[in-house]
Amino acid sequence: MARIWLSLLVLGCFQRDTLCFLPNPFSAIDTNDYTHTDITEIGVLKAVAKFFEENAVQACRNCSNGALTGLPDITARRLYDQYYGGQVSEKRFQEAIDDLVKHNNKVDQDHYSEAAWHFNGEQIKESNAKMQTLRDTLLNTLNSSNPNFDAARELIGQYLHLLQMFYSNTNWVEMSGGQTAVIYQPLGISGLPIMAAAPPSIDTCRSCGGTYSSDCQNNLIVAGNLLTSGYKSGQDVVKPAKNPGSVAEGKCSHGGPRDSSATSSAAVGGINKDSMDTTYSPHHHLHEKAAELAIDHTRLFFEDPTYGLRKLVGDDKFQDLLQIRSGNSLVFVIDTTGSMGKDIAAVQNKTAEIVSETKGTPNAPYNYILVTFNDPGNETTVQKTTNPDDIQRWLAAIQVHGGDDCPEFSLTGIQAASTVAMPNSNVFVFTDATPKDPQKINYITSLITEKKLRVQFLVTGSCTRKRVSHDHIHPRNVD
Ligand SMILES: *[C@@H]1O[C@H](CO)[C@@H](O)[C@H](O)[C@H]1NC(C)=O
Ligand SMILES: *[C@@H]1O[C@H](CO)[C@@H](O)[C@H](O)[C@H]1NC(C)=O
Ligand SMILES: *[C@@H]1O[C@H](CO)[C@@H](O)[C@H](O)[C@H]1NC(C)=O
Ligand SMILES: *[C@@H]1O[C@H](CO)[C@@H](O)[C@H](O)[C@H]1NC(C)=O
User: Fold this and answer.
1) Where in this protein does the record put region Disordered (predicted)?
2) Which of 138, 144, 180, 184 has the alpha carbon at shortest distance from 158?
3) Model pLDDT for residues 177-236, shown as the tens digit of each residue
4) Domain that holds residue 437
5) Does the pTM of the predicted model rise above 0.70?
């Protein structure tokens, strides 16, 4: 048992190597350490808790100011239980969080040796420029009418990694008050200047004594409002060499057992706040403070009233990005080829009835989707709305045209519907024909299964040109 524990620990040491904050709980040395995973998750949960407080639903047991944001030991499960009264699964939200965390942690794998991806080696301006570029690209991505949310989460994961590293690797926490430090708001925002980094001519640290434990807390000597950060061996920005035997001052190191610059060149020691463990972090005493600021800033990245993502892209995209919508879609897939002419009024009658059944009730869907398809298959239209009056209007306005041969392209319509529908949605398909595009059936079946859609065919015939009468519209379940 003891040996297994030891080997896990050793593995952890290698993984954590250059990292500022450790990537995840399995790489943390001290079990109380805050990792990038913790920091990202708590920051996102608090931002969503705030959104929920401002958008209370009936099921919410206590949605007053502070009731959700102040939940002790907040998790997605606890937040959802409190907000939705146990009625809604947090699974999709948790998946979005996990996605952000994955891309955050991946920066360490992909950019291990690049100081500017870690705010190391006084690459303050360069790291900040990376953040600005990531954020601008993100805003651009989300500005599209149909954004790629996967790409957006990747950009956010990378951005938050840099943001969080700022607090562990630079002297900001020490400079802005140590235990009373505050967040550095202009970080990573295009158009907002940040403080200068100490130039090469200025020594920023004095050498610590033999250990990092308690005698390496007051080693920063950089004066005025200059930012600095530690140099780390093995990265592409190398610490200026000074003989530690004869010189006591020099640039700061990152520090820790895997940073040889911390002992081979003055100033001896380091300033990282990755861990509470004294051997790994010369500034271990500020680890909790750095993590607290990183969490706060992660939260503000989403909810800052001026620069927050929610403010800039709007609540709808914020919800889609973090997958926090509840509810499903009510989807109609309707054949508008000429052969439907006789049946279309009955279809309109039936669909209107389906919409009315739940309109204004707690069972109402989150949104309504109308897909029409014709012949050939490229004439498929998709309309989406959250307003039941819109869908009623669109359904009433449907006209049939063309495509008098049969059978028709119903699977193309179902595919379009399955792509835009929310999980667990009801899909009603109205057609009089057997599908003309059955080669798609496997792909569409897996789409339907994955999203747990309930598809019902409401057939009005099988394209025999012998019409059944309108009141014979009948459901046929497809699972
Ligand atoms: C709701 O939460 C707030 C903030 O935590 C608390 O002060 C208040 O007592 C709670 N109200 C109820 C009815 O539990
Ligand atoms: C978003 O797009 C609109 C035009 O579609 C443009 O006017 C606006 O500047 C864009 N905003 C951002 C942040 O790119
Ligand atoms: C729609 O249904 C109602 C009764 O449910 C019926 O009176 C009406 O004639 C129907 N309209 C059409 C166009 O089928
Ligand atoms: C559908 O495809 C046909 C043939 O490829 C083309 O002539 C027609 O313009 C297309 N219609 C639409 C709505 O794209």
Assistant:
1) 239-276
2) 138
3) 999 999 999 999 999 999 999 999 999 999 997 666 667 999 999 988 899 999 999 999
4) 329-478
5) yes
